[in-house]
Each structure stands twice: as C-alpha cells, then as structure tokens.
Amino acid sequence: MKMLNAAIIGGGAIHTCHVNALRQMPGVTLRALVDIDSERGLKLAMAYQCRFYQDYREMLLDSEIDVVHICTPHFEHKRMILAALAAGKQVFCEKPVGMNGGEIAEIAMAAQNAPGLLGVCYQNRLNPTSQRIRRELAEGDHGRMLSIKAVLTWSRSGAYYTQSPWRGRFATEGGSLLINQAIHTLDLMQWFAGGVTRLKGVVDSGELADVTQAEDSAMATLHFTNGARGLFYASNCHTTDSPLLLEIHCENATLQLFDNALWRIKNGERIKLVSDASPNGAAKSYWGLGHQHAIGDFYAALTDPDKADYTDIREAGKSLTLVEAIYRSSQMRQWIEINQQ
Ligand SMILES: NC(=O)c1ccc[n+]([C@@H]2O[C@H](COP(=O)([O-])OP(=O)(O)OC[C@H]3O[C@@H](n4cnc5c(N)ncnc54)[C@H](O)[C@@H]3O)[C@@H](O)[C@H]2O)c1
C-alpha cells in the first residue's frame, strides 16, 4: 500500500477530528500542521511531532506532502483549495467547500482539471442512522415519501463568536447558522429525498443578534424532486446541543431519528433500527461520528480509484445551493426555484 503524508491547515476546533482519524489509518502520517497563529501552531506541531508552517503556501512547496486537509475559516477555503490543487496535492476540505455558487463553480473547474482529488467533509452522511435511512428508503417497501421534517436546535454562546471572529459574518463565514451548523441537516434532507425543486425560507436573528451579523435561526419549506414536502427549522439559540430530530413520513411507514437513534413505525409497531452512539466518545456527538469514515473513504479513493466513494464538489455544492436559496428567499420574500436532480 502507498504511504501517504498529510498536512492540516488550521489547528482550531475541528482539526482534532482530522488528527484522530489520521492516527487510525495505517500507512498515513501527519507530516505538517499549518496555522497562521504561530504560537498555537508550534505547540500543536510539537505535540504531533510534525513540521510547522505558518504560511500554507510554503507547506505546498513541500514535495513530501501528498494530502492537504483544510480546516480554516470559510473565506480561506477557495484560495487554499485552488492553490493546493495547482500544487498537485490531494485535497480534503471541511464543509462548506466555498461560500457561494460563484466560488463553487471556480473550484469545480479547478478540480476537473487537476491531477489530485477534492473531497469535502459531510461526515453525517456516514452516520449509521443516515446510512440505514438511505437503505430503508431504497429497499424498505415503505411507499411514496410524503414529507421530511427536520429540527436542529443547538447552543452557541457569545464566546463562540468572539473567540473566532470570522464566525457569524457574511464576509468571512458566508452567513452563520445555515452555512456552518445547519448545512449538514439540509444536506441530509436533500440526500434522502434526491434533490430540491423549490423552497421558501426565512432567516432571523434574536438571542445572538449582538454577536453575529448573520442569522441565528432559520426555517424553510422545501419541495423535493420526488414530490415530497420538507419542513426545516434550525436555531443556535437553544441552551443545549439537542440531537437532530428528523422524521420521514412515507405512505406505509414513518422513520424517526430521535436521540441519535433511528426508529421505524410500521404496521402499528415502533422498532429501533440502529443508533449512532459513540463507541469511545471521541468526537462531540453533535458533529456526528463520521469524520474517521469520511476521511477513510477519501484516502481509500486515493489508493484505489475503484473505491471512489466520497463527497465530491458536485455533491458538496447541493447543500450550499440550498443555503444560498434560503438567504435569497428570506430577502425577497418569495419561493426560489432550484431544480436539483
Ligand atoms: N464537519 C463538521 O461537522 C465541522 C464542525 C466544526 C467546524 N467545521 C468546519 O471546520 C472549519 C474550521 O472551523 P473551526 O471551528 O475549527 O474554526 P476555528 O476558528 O476554531 O479554527 C480555525 C483555525 O484556522 C487558523 N487559520 C485561520 N486562517 C488561516 C490561514 N490563512 N492559514 C493557516 N491557518 C489559518 C486559525 O488560526 C485557527 O487555528 C470550518 O470550515 C467549519 O465550518 C466542520
């Protein structure tokens, strides 16, 4: 098996999920940590016994680096992806891959012409409950899907925004709740139903209005390509990080995601199918437990192209399209046509 060397750009909150995943992978070494904050970066590089770079462009000149993980603020994603692909690296980027449709188009063009692959981290697709929902919908004989309801209520403090001031601003985050937290929920909804044709949404800011320039709460009605309806509500103003509540109502059955477990209600019976409980409690449960799987799938594709099963730029663009459409709908107070397949 080919040995691969990785570098992580950005040593903030999410990077430990990448470090932990890389540690579990035979044949993969964390070779470099990059952070613009040299004090933080040096400390981490010493702990990981790897090289430290303050400037990611210097790291890209390091011919020993094969794979670049991007764990930086959203406004940095596009230029870092383009530079890493141009340097011939493989790239695994945290969501969202860019901040808007224009950036996605530019990145897609670069990815198409680059020798390296670009994968995006949508780890919640790999949760056992998500995988089982897809299987139930494909093979479960549950009849036509009628609707999907999703409720995401998390807690983000003022300190969360002041500690990383890029958060909560259109210029640096591309929005707030929708593009950072709820993008996973929108992605799952469209993934389960197979795309969105139109939506109408509203964003607003209440409890966190003093610390964010963008929304802290949002709701939307969606029409899916398969004819089903979607109801979506999300907020960062709860006082705890509640597990995602999701319900899929089909003609002959209802699937319920409740407290990280998937239930099926059919023929008068409510049966627990599978749960996402962490075996080791390694990651914050609300991030989902799939980083290791998502990163593992991407590396599998690098060593064996026949195993290519990761979220690529096309897939990653779908949820971002929904995020943008909700912002636009809220501004214009009207339905937005999307026509996703
Ligand atoms: N997949 C998930 O569930 C999940 C969860 C949390 C965060 N994320 C994503 O991870 C990314 C990072 O979020 P975070 O919460 O870890 O952010 P953070 O603010 O905690 O950390 C960002 C780090 O990047 C560094 N940085 C900033 N600009 C840089 C530059 N030009 N060069 C090198 N380093 C730079 C900062 O110094 C900081 O250490 C975002 O895209 C976010 O949406 C994903």
Task: Summarize the structure in words.
- It is a single chain.
- The strands form two sheets. A nine-stranded mixed sheet has the order 14-13-12-11-7-10-9-8-15. A six-stranded parallel sheet has the order 3-2-1-4-5-6, sandwiched between helices.
- By secondary structure, it is an alpha/beta fold.
- It folds into two domains: 4-123, NAD(P)-binding Rossmann-like Domain (Rossmann fold, 3-Layer(aba) Sandwich), CATH 3.40.50.720; 125-279 and 313-337, Dihydrodipicolinate Reductase, domain 2, CATH 3.30.360.
- The protein is built from twelve helices and 15 strands.
- The chain is globular and about 60 Å long.
- The mean pLDDT is 95.
- α1 packs across α11 and α4 (74-86) packs parallel to α5.
- The chain has helices at residues 15-23, 38-48, 56-60, 74-86, 101-113, 128-139, 158-163, 170-173, 177-180, 183-193, 291-303, 313-332, and strands at residues 4-9, 28-34, 51-53, 67-70, 90-94, 118-121, 145-153, 196-204, 217-224, 229-235, 245-250, 254-258, 261-266, 269-275, 336-337.
- The structure holds nicotinamide-adenine-dinucleotide.
- Residues 9-14, 34-37, 40, 56, 71-74, 76, 94-95, 121, 123, 164, 180, 287 line the site of nicotinamide-adenine-dinucleotide.
- Residues 131-255 form the GFO/IDH/MocA-like oxidoreductase domain.
- One of its GO terms (molecular function) is nucleotide binding.
